[in-house]
Design goal:
The protein is of the alpha/beta class. The protein has helices at residues 13-22, 31-44, 55-65, 82-89, 135-145, 199-206, 212-216, 236-246, 249-272, 299-311, 327-332, 342-346, 360-375, and strands at 48-52, 73-77, 94-98, 120-126, 148-152, 160-161, 164-165, 172-176, 189-193, 285-286, 292-295, 333-335, 349-352. The protein is globular, with a radius of gyration of 21 Å.
Length: 376
């Protein structure tokens, strides 16, 4: 069976984990946490990167830093994982869902402004499959209406928009290092902070509401309870595992892009005859090969294709059920305008296996079975 996902593994992870143990610092903010944060700051240019226990927690921190409260409204796409909405719903804010673009599956930037009300405080956008939203337009809308922008860049490490790293354009950006992502520490994430003035507040929030980060840097002689906060620090052993992959980041990224490009070329004939649709990468966007998907005619055809692939020992999966159609989505939010594409496109999308260790031979076999299904 060709699995849909295999967590990335370089073979050297346990050496770093052993080193973390020998350092006798296996809790948060040790040597490897620092190395991971410095690496992310270097490749993105962000003012500060704080490693977290998950992307979910990074999003929750962003909602707190945006000072979102009960009665506020946040604009976001319905086609996303629940963490995007939970981050601010936990604060009592209301979700205002906007339709997506069918080409990138990202929020339709042309529909955002009509969703803005006097209660709107922020836009939480999602860079689906590591492909950037139309950030120039979104940031201009945010500027005109004095809105905060949070980038859910869970799938978008090493991706960019017009030369700018995703996660660094809005006020805050959030990465994921879950086992399904390009780089993994099992469970983990990172919060990227654009404005240096926000760093101290974020450090206090992440360190249980204390200024312990300043204490560790020798800036104060004792640390104190300064504000509300929680523990968002991952173990340094997890960071040690992750840093091994950062040391091979270019190789891992290149391998995924090679398989992505191979899929595209092999399946392009089906696209050209109108049997399926393939991902679209707009000009100015650099992606990371996080996922490869196709779009079938409808849900029924997708179900038949999933069954056919499984019979040929290939695991394929669909993705999010739109949030606005879920019980919590109906309770915590509303859809603004017409659901023209969100539901329809979500029912057609099918993800093919994609992971670092996927071979060219496996990719050819998978694409071959997709073609066999349609030729039949």
């Amino acid at each position: 069976m060709i699995r849909f996902n295999v967590p990335p593994y370089t073979g050297k992870e346990m050496e770093n984990v052993q080193q973390a143990i020998e350092n006798m610092h296996i809790c948060g903010d040790g040597e490897f946490t620092r190395k991971c944060s410095e690496y992310l700051e270097r490749i993105t240019g962000t003012a500060r990167c704080l490693l977290t226990t998950s992307c979910t927690h990074a999003l929750e921190m962003a909602a707190l830093l945006c000072n979102l409260r009960e009665g506020d409204e946040v604009i976001l796409p319905s086609y996303t994982f629940v963490s995007t909405a939970n981050a601010f719903v936990l604060r009592g804010a209301k979700a205002v869902f906007v339709d997506i673009r069918p080409d990138t599956m990202n929020i339709d930037e042309t529909l955002i402004e009509e969703a803005v009300t006097e209660k709107t405080r922020a836009i939480f956008l999602v860079h689906y499959a590591g492909v950037a939203c139309e950030m120039d337009s979104i940031m201009e809308i945010a500027r005109r209406h004095h809105l905060m922008v949070v980038e859910d860049a869970a799938q978008a490490i090493m991706c960019s928009y017009k030369g700018k790293a995703l996660g660094t354009i809005g006020n805050y950006g959030c990465y994921s290092f879950h086992e399904t992502k390009n780089f993994s520490m099992g469970e983990g994430g990172a919060l990227l902070i654009r404005n240096p003035d926000d760093i101290e507040k974020a450090e206090i929030l992440r360190e249980k509401g204390t200024d312990r980060s300043k204490f560790y840097r020798g800036q104060v002689d004792k640390y104190r309870w300064m504000n509300f906060g929680s523990s968002y620090l991952p173990s340094d052993m997890n960071a040690a595992y992750l840093y091994t992959q950062f040391e091979m980041a270019e190789e891992i990224n290149a391998a995924r892009l090679a398989r992505w490009n191979q899929y595209y070329e092999l399946l392009k004939p089906l696209k050209e005859t109108g049997r399926i649709e393939l991902p679209v990468i707009p000009e100015g966007c650099v992606h990371n090969g996080h996922m490869f998907y196709i779009k079938t005619k409808d849900m029924q055809e997708r179900t038949r294709l999933i069954d056919f692939m499984k019979k040929n020992d290939i695991l394929t999966v669909f993705h999010y059920v739109p949030l606005h159609s879920a019980p919590a989505g109906m309770g915590f939010g509303r859809f603004c305008g017409e659901d023209k594409y969100t539901t329809r496109e979500s029912e057609r999308l099918l993800r093919l296996p994609m992971f670092y260790q996927l071979t060219a031979e496996q990719t050819e076999y998978i694409a071959g079975k997709v073609k066999e299904f349609y030729e039949a």
